[in-house]
Amino acid sequence: MSTAKLAVAPSHPGEWIDSHCHLDAPEFDPDCDAVVSRARAAGVGTLVMPGVHVRHFEDLRRLAHRHGLPYAIGIHPLWVRHSADDDLALLRATVVRWHDDPLLVAVGEIGLDHFVPSPDPAREQRFYVEQLKIARDAGLPVILHVRRSADALLAGLRRVPVAGGIAHAFNGSEQQAGRFVDRGFRLGFGGALTFDTALHLRRLARSLPAEALVLETDAPDIPPHWIYRKAADRAAGAAQGRNEPAELPRIAAVLAELRGWTTARTAQVATANTLAALPRLAAAVRGTS
Question: Which of 15, 189, 255, 280 could form a disulfide with 10 if both were Cys (CB 3.0 to 4.6 A apart)?
């Protein structure tokens, strides 16, 4: 993979893509429009919104079309326990029905979570593999939830190859990173990168090939260090800060410092990589700009 083959860079260095945020989360119900406005004022013009459950798909799509933002649909591993078996068939039917929607760019957020104990690990695994099949059959990339599950996710991708995508909030080994990249994936870095104590994550951000990196917030979750409140502070009554897409340029500045890049170079690399990971995204951005 070489940067010469990547998609076009932004027209000016202030244009950023948040490759993963959840604007349909209830935390944004009071002021979602203002959140989008703040993001755009900060230079974050494109926000990719992955789905988490079939009950949310219609609302997510309406939100996407209201703001001209790309979205994905999938069943998050932590939502598998709240899903019916026929939700997989509903997801497949919805992907088929919305396949020609230019704002639909991927199947996701799907994957495996080996940090939060599952009441039925085999069922979580089955949902993951079946969603890979849906993405494969639709010719769409996937947005993967990777939480202590990189090897298991890679095993699934060997069984059911898909058209690449993004491994969101990646924190695996350098060897695992290479295996994802070899399969056409880019790796998402966000607020966790901003903590001085995130030594492993920072080593990855420095050492991985430039074409492997994309930027994300996971808003409202994974707040950067300037928003995060420690448990003791929360116990004392301090509210946990809500992450927003507008924080992406400050997160990007941390990546730039780690890599020794300028802001313009960071924007160019991250944007090109995101467009390469989600090929429909370029058309979605052009169609709504």
Answer: 15
